[in-house]
Design goal:
Blueprint lengths: L1 H23 L3 H5 L9 H19 L7 H7 L15 H24 L8 E3 L9 E3 H25 L18
Antiparallel strand pairs: 1-2
Helix pairs in contact: 1-5, 1-6, 3-5, 3-6, 4-5
Length: 179
């Protein structure tokens, strides 16, 4: 299980770098243009991906009490601050790249620090109306991976409409764990 989550964490990091690089070639106006998505613009979608990662990493802390290496892996994510709502300035856009890198690295380092039994640790959540009140860490890691993939799919659709090649969907064999 750990190897699978490590592969997906590495994939998320690489896919986020790729879509940021593609969008970085656009003007700020093009990144901020209303695109009809729930998060409005391309930068809004990428900011939401980062915000979702920040949120998930934060809720994992409650499950990691006696695991200092895992908690240490999450420490850098604490330096990431929520970006303001609305259009991003060019400086905020550049800050988003740094934030994504910090968050994605924290996720890879977290999964690397986990022992196989840690994937069953309970994470408290109220998402399901208290039923269940907690779910395994593996489930919540899966939710984070799905969240990023879902929203990168929205970015991909918009980039397709703009005729910008963006085939980052395959998982490269280089992401497999080396033993």
């Amino acid at each position: 299980m750990k190897d699978t989550y490590l592969m997906f964490a590495r994939y998320n990091a690489g896919a986020n770098r790729t879509i940021y690089a593609l969008m970085d070639k656009l003007s700020n106006e093009e990144r901020e243009k209303e695109r009809g998505s729930y998060y409005h613009s391309l930068s809004g979608l990428l900011r939401h991906i980062a915000g979702g990662t920040w949120f998930f990493l934060g809720i994992y802390k409650s499950a990691l009490g006696g695991r200092p290496a895992a908690l240490k892996a999450l420490e850098p994510a604490g330096a990431v601050k929520k970006l303001p709502e609305g259009p991003l300035s060019p400086d905020q856009w550049r800050a988003l790249a740094a934030d994504l890198e910090i968050l994605d690295t924290a996720l890879v380092n977290l999964v690397s620090a986990l022992d196989p039994k840690d994937f069953t640790l309970p994470v408290k959540t109220d998402w399901y109306g208290g039923n269940p009140a907690e779910v395994p860490l593996s489930f919540m890691l899966g939710q984070l991976i799905a969240h990023g993939t879902h929203h990168r799919g929205q970015v991909s659709q918009i980039l397709d409409e703009l005729k910008i090649d963006n085939d980052y969907s395959g998982i490269n064999v280089a992401l497999l764990s080396k033993k």
